[in-house]
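Exam revision sheet. Question 4 asks you to relate a sequence to its structure. Input first:
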Amino acid sequence: MAEIELKFVTPRHTVNAFADNVIPALTQLGMQVAKARHMQLQNDYYDTPEHDFQKNKIGFRVRGNDGVFEQTLKTQGKVSGGLHERAEYNIDLDSSHPDLTLFDQHVWPAKFDARAANAKLERQFSTNFTRTAYDVSFDGSLIEVVLDEGEATTGKAQSPINEIELEVKKGGVSALFAIAEVINSILPVTVSDVSKAAQGYQLLNGVKAQVAPMPDFLPLPSQVSTEKAFTIAAQHALTHWQHHEHLYLQTGSVKMLGEVARSIRLLLQCVSLYLPVLQCSQLLELHSLLMKYTPQWLWQDDLQSLRYLASRKSLFHKCLSRHPSLQSYVQGRKAGLVQAHDPEGLFYSTQSTEIKLRVTQLLHELPWRSEANHYAMPAIEHARGWLSQGWQTVQQSMSTTRSMGAANYTAIEIILRQTLWSGFLLADLFSGEREAFRAPWLDILTGIEELKALMMLDSIIEDTEPEEASKLNHWVAQKTHSLLTVMERTRQMGMQGDTYW
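Answer key, structure tokens:
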């Protein structure tokens, strides 16, 4: 059978707060909440030594509850925003020993040898948690809400489990979102796309703070509709956001925060771009939420400048390595910036989670179909006009008839970034020289980031007054001049490029 569910992660135990605050709020809205059921669940997850299940995006577990055992197989399915839709197969067992041969052959991926895998099964990790479950009836639907609190363990390492899962048992998903909005308004939660099985594998193999690279431009099917192009783009931005948010919460790596800010800006540009065609009140409300939330991440620009100053790979390393006091100041300012803006608090904020819920609901319900007329048109029919408009704005802002200094470049950063994001979202619709056209402008954007780092270093020198400050100021001025010379040459070249649309 298929399951449709939404998962929240919480920063702490919430069972009591849910009973005391969420349930009364649900009943006030006319929802019927059944008496809580409590279970102590032991789950052992199995795989082959070659990790065949993990490679095929399969989760397989044996669950024990008060001497009753059940084995469960979950396939990859699909994710729409934060909503998970996947096949789930359950079989009762006489003991805790797994047996893959009890499943029908059709549940397995093509060429997967279940009998051979059965002979090699090994327990990989376990999850042990207390489950508090409520059945919530509303508007003809039945939603099961479960709160899981416990830990995942490999025997050598542990990680906490604090989750709230909402699963559709009967009816549609609108009731699920109604309940999710109430939970988000009361408890600190964030929408998660990491299953317990994935969490266990991360515990088993370790979590690496590696940035998931974005492609040069968003892959789109041939003759894609405007609606489909938007949903692919919004899903991509949200997935990138959730992935790096999770990695930050697991590792504390500040480079993940830059990717989160990038995802939020991409999502805002995506909504802004498609809003004139996919006109509906829900998309307009999402745009308003993003416009209010995105400025809360502007401090990331300063953090990334500080990261660049501190990097061993940057043009600053050789110079700053001779000034330990400046290096120490940069590191301290980085830590202070993160502490002051509390990214974990931003992740668990009502505003952040509301945006993820709205995106998820939009991708599932496609509300513009009842209000707009052009959602089925090929996206390419709109794309040429959108790209031309952005390019004209860049040309007007960076006219070749005048030279540009550091302040001029930093002033047009937002316009250039938005135009390049539009190109990222639409370039795959065309077969022209996309990379060649975009390359100089991407170089200029990188140059702007380097300019901002140089300007920050100039400010730090003024604030700290280190030894040999005049030499440092001279070095910054030289580097700024050289960088601007290259950027001006690149701008002239970019202006002469032929558009690919």
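Marking note for examiners. Residues 434-464 form the longest helix (31 residues).
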